[in-house]
Amino acid sequence: MTRFRTVDLLVTVLIGAAFGVAYLGYGQLYTLIGPLTAAFKPAEGLLAGIWFLPAMLAGLVVRKPGAALLAGMIAAVLSMLLGSQWGWGTAISGLMQGGGVELAFLLTRYRHFTLPVAVLGGVLAALLEWAWEKLAYYQEMSWAFSGAMLACFLVSGALLCGVLGWAAARALVSTGAVDTLAAGREHARVAEV
Amino acid sequence: MATITPPRAPATTGRQLTGLTWRPLTRSRPTIASLDLAIPAGQRVLLAGASGSGKSTVLRAPPGRLGEESGEGTGLLSPPSRPGEAGLLLQNPSHALVAATVFRDVAFGPENAALPRTEIRERVAAALAAAQVGLNPQRGPLEVSGGQQQRIALAGSLALDPELLLLDEPTSMLDPETADLVRESILAAADGAGLVIAEHRLGPWLPHVDRLVVLGEQAQILADGAPGEVLREQRELLQEVGVLAAEEPNAVRPTGTGPVVASLRGVTVPARGLISPLDLEVRAGRLSVLTGPSGAGKTTVLRTLLDAGAPATGEVQRPDPARIAAVPQNPEHSFVATTVRAELSASPWAEDPVLAEELLERAGLTHLAGAHPHRLSGGEQRRLATAAALAQSPDLLVLDEPTVGLDARRRRDVQSLLADATGRGCAVLVATHDPELIAAAGDRFELPAPDPAGPPPAPRRRLPADALNPLTLCLIGILAAVGSFAVQTWQGGLLALLPTVVLAPLAVRTLRGGALRLAPILLSAAGLAWTTALLGDAPSLSHEAWLLGLKEAARITAFVAPGVLALGSVEATALGDALGQRLRLPARPVVASVTALVRVGHLGRQWEIITRTRIRRGLGSARSPRLLAGVTLALLVDTLRGAEQQALAMDARGFAGADHRTWAQPSTLGRADLLGALIAGGLLVWPLIAGMLAG
Q: Is residue B253 part of a domain?
């Protein structure tokens, strides 16, 4: 159960790599909320959840210990190698985000892959990522604004990572692209009944 | 288990499938039902059968790749004791490629078999020669043409001395001339080894095989014997199951000369290899084909015709975007809906529900109207994508290789849809290798063959930083980041940046490249200064607040910049080698991660194709969150479908048991790395010292 077959490994790392590429296209999203974040930086946290998606999808689809963490790390390391403006900070972010999502699945002993668990994973990832960013980037931000930023992070983690990630995993399963993986097999059994 | 193999295993008694039954966990019926098939050593077998007859699945049985985690069955063989005993080539050669260079790709199997480094080199050289690869071993395998990729994949199998080669439509994505050359390479290289070939186009293989096996539903054997005999005696059966094309001519060649709907005049796009001026015109109610060998620039021509953005020279005439529809080579790239019926009206330009219903009928998809588009078979997906394009009632319909990988009957289905389109007065342009489609066309535009050598790889200026092991480069970035936390004042912060400025030339290849890497850092630092001045504890935007902002900007630059500059010299392959050999991290996750990282360029190209496909359907701009979400999902579907094939190809080369593998290239730590480590240590303590000096 815990050993990764080759297909499990590849799906995990490729989810990370695909998001590393997708993030290059997402830069546009930040320009959409640019005017808002220039005046009120904490609002940027509202998009934070999309960075936790590779970990969430890998966790929900592959369902093996370590998948979420590995996918999060691959996406982060790829961003870093492609020249992310946060350098090694990106790798730590990958660890925090992947680790946060992984923690939620660990707490259920990898038995439940439901919407509440996904939301919990998004929230934990948000909490850890916020703590890291507070330490590394926003030391001098007042606690009032840091608190506002945390609130934005948590909302985003719950919705953009938890809910959206869970919906995306379901959409992916319904396409049949992950039929050979744990998530797909469960779907197949349901479909046959 | 990884074991050192003898030079060539003695020929065994071949492979025997007895009472093989297999049901994937996702199906309710078996895809193979009690199949008996004996393949004597050295025999060459051609496996024919309509799409969905289970040919590909049968190919997975001899190497023991049907396992209990993906289905259940009887008569299953276990994986061979020696990695690579049975080699596997896939329809899409890019699925077999795993490494950043041709050399490392072919070395992948021998590495998994834990062979010593000298033997790996010998085997790679021999395999590259046997497969007639003829490329610089340092080229990137994903950057070369499909024919060359298939030869690299062949070399990758040969490096493990297979007794049996299993070929899953290995030439179906290639143009006929390239396919012939690749086929010759395969036949020459197979020399003595057995061959099992699953294929839709029988003709070219027939003279070279000993036996033809025709499979029907659930891989039932319908005919089995010498090729000439089976063809003579079972011709009707072969036509009936869709393996051979029926002889009567298909569509009536349209002869009307409608008005010119779109045209290119004297167009060149030198940046994409289109050098000689091209003239092309597509007329209403007529089928035109664009032909030419792989790499001749067919895709570039289609892009130039379809999308705004002027070519280098020449003129383009095209209808309004809403009057153009395009079907990508991979139909899944265009799908956005969750049912077939919804897919037909997904484009805002598809406004006529009666037409949609009619097209559903014409495409033979009515009984599947409620099915999920991604769950259709390959042939059904092609018809759906084409029908959805026609639902826009376009003036111009453009298709990229619409019949690749389809059997004779499904090729005809696509053809008749196209005939339907021209019948409605639509101008149809198809980029294709398919001889039947070419024969049915009213006009043909042939592109000249490209320069076979391609552009030479750009030489990279060697930097002092390139001499360092990736681990040392990582250490520099990590310790510099840790050290930056000592910055307490703006004076100390600016002084802390001094060594980064001094050392930067050692790690910057070109001025422009360096600027491109540093610009985002400086922009972020400026952003952080602004945020700190605005939202810090000091009064907003006061003098004091700005100085605090300056300190933060200097601190974050000291945190990030050394790492980013050092990472410019880190390559995924060398990093994987270091993590596996020096840090002894588990080999399989490390190698899989490298495999994913080297596909980034490929993934980026897929992202672009998918995005363009959707914009052409009128589904939004590249800034629309909805479009981006759809593109991400489509990229994941494409990538994860590929992952299954890739896993198969990697396991056929011994990756499943490669926990203790060898590495074709050593990860060295030399004197330069000692110096690098000293620099890393210096960057760790310098901000602290700078703070004292400044303060």
A: no
In angstroms, how far apart are the furthest CA atoms of chain B?
97
* B527 vs A6: CA distance, rounded Å: 43
Are B351 and B438 within one domain?
A: yes
Most trustworthy range by pLDDT among A79-83, A165-169, A174-178: A165-169
* Same domain assignment for residues B397 and B295: yes
CB < 8 Å to B640, chain A: 11, 14-15, 172, 177-178
**Whether pLDDT at A187 is above 70:** no
> Cα(B110)–Cα(B104) distance, rounded to whole angstroms?
10
Per-residue pLDDT band for B12 (boundaries 50, 70, 90) equals low
| ipTM of predicted complex | 0.95
Domain with B383 in it: 260-446
A17 and B603 within 8 Å at the Cβ level: the answer is yes
Residues of B in contact with A74 (CB under 8 A): 593, 596-597
Indicate if B493 and B441 belong to the same structural domain: no
First-to-final CA distance of chain A: 24
Alpha-carbon gap: A90 to the closest alpha carbon of chain B (Å): 10
> Do B441 and B468 lie in a common domain?
no
Q: Is residue B341 part of a domain?
A: yes
pLDDT in tens, B573-626: 999 999 999 999 999 999 999 999 999 999 999 999 999 999 999 999 888 889
The residue-averaged pLDDT of B550-554 equals 96
Contact between B568 and B507 (Cβ < 8 Å): yes
For residues B37-50, average pLDDT? 89
Cα angle B262, B266, B272; round to 5: 95
**B46-74 pLDDT, tens per residue?**
998 877 788 888 888 887 778 767 788 88
Number of domains in chain B: 3
Q: Which of A83, A142, A175 sits opposite B637 (nearest CB)?
A: A175
Residue given tokens 């200097």 in the structure block? B554
Q: Residue B343 in contact with residue B336, Cβ under 8 Å?
A: yes
Instruction: Please report whether residue B621 resides in a domain.
Output: no
Q: Is B230:B223 a contact under the CB 8 Å cutoff?
A: yes
> Does residue B252 lie in a domain region?
no
* Polymer length of chain A: 193
Domains of chain A: 6-192 (1.10.1760)
Same domain, B233 and B316: no
The CATH number that applies at residue B45 is 3.40.50.300
Query: Is residue B81 packed enough to be buried (19+ CB in 10 Å), middle (13-18) or exposed (0-12)?
Result: exposed
User: How far apart are the C-alpha atoms of B58 and B229, rounded to whole Å?
Assistant: 23
Q: Which of A152, A163, A175 to mutate against chain B (most B CBs within 10 Å)?
A: A175
